[in-house]
Design goal:
A hairpin with a 6-residue loop joins strand 2 and strand 3. The chain has a three-stranded antiparallel β-sheet with strand order 1-2-3. Helix content is 48%, strand content 9%. The chain is elongated. By secondary structure, the protein is mainly alpha-helical.
Length: 256
């Protein structure tokens, strides 16, 4: 897929669309659904996607919002306030930023992306992806999750920190001292009604920018912590070069 415009203009395009979403939703107070309908059906969105310089890099976020509202015939409902100065980016700003990148990278219409990932779902990805490379959002668009859980950033951070602490100083730290990558994990025990429960262990790595997630489940394996060594060997195999990789101990073996 050949992008509609040169990569040189991509930073401006991302900043302009990000600023437009931030301004429309946070400064103007427009309802998300209303503005996204305006945007998706506007000529501005179509021409932006085709790389028209006026829209890609010739307008500020505020000007782009005004143009969208004018084109859709709703300019009369918008009281144009000044844009607020913010110390950092908002989830809405980030959503516009990655939406512009995804549209450029995949060469599809904005409405096509929003059909797969509605704007609310994009915003809900902010806690997990806002520090990652924009290509990670494109990966989500290419293979969208079955469900995106709405979780407050501080709650998500608490969960992630707890999973990281488990492998650094918790009950499985002994096994993870030999792990070649910083990881995060959670043990689990699925009760079966019998004497021995099923063992469950989940992990992802790297902890600050996940590239792999895994789940180890062993029927009647007992405590999930007992599976930590298997998870470490899988992670080590994944993050070790082909020339240096060794077979995972216990691969294709039944643990009694």
């Amino acid at each position: 897929m050949i992008p509609a415009y040169d990569e040189t203009y991509l930073p401006d395009a991302m900043a302009n669309l990000a600023g437009a979403f931030d301004y429309a939703l946070n400064d103007c107070g427009l309802p998300v659904g209303l503005f996204m309908d305006f945007f998706a059906t506007s000529e501005a969105a179509a021409l932006f996607g085709r790389g028209t310089p006026k829209y890609v890099c010739g307008m500020s976020g505020e000007e782009l919002v005004a143009e969208i509202m004018r084109q859709t015939g709703w300019a009369r409902i918008l009281d144009i306030p000044p844009a607020a100065l913010r110390a950092g980016s908002t989830p809405e700003y980030w959503a516009g930023w990655v939406l512009a990148y995804c549209q450029w990278a995949r060469g599809v219409r904005f409405s096509d992306i929003l059909d797969v990932l509605p704007f609310g779902d994009i915003v809900r990805l902010y806690p997990a992806l806002h520090e990652a490379d924009e290509s990670r959002f494109v990966d989500v668009y290419d293979e969208p999750p079955a469900e995106i859980i709405d979780i407050e950033p501080e709650n998500l951070q608490a969960v992630l920190q707890g999973m990281r602490d488990l492998v650094v100083s918790g009950s499985v730290a002994y096994y993870f001292k030999d792990c070649v990558v910083d990881a995060a994990a959670k043990t689990g025990t699925a009760q079966t009604g019998g004497k021995v429960s099923n063992g469950v262990f989940v992990a992802f790595a790297p902890s600050d920018d996940p590239q792999i997630a895994l789940a180890v489940v062993i029927e009647k394996g007992g405590s999930g912590g007992a599976l930590a060594s298997t998870a470490v060997q899988i992670l080590n195999a994944y993050f070790t070069s082909v020339d240096e990789a060794k077979a995972v101990v216990g691969e294709n073996m039944l643990i009694q």
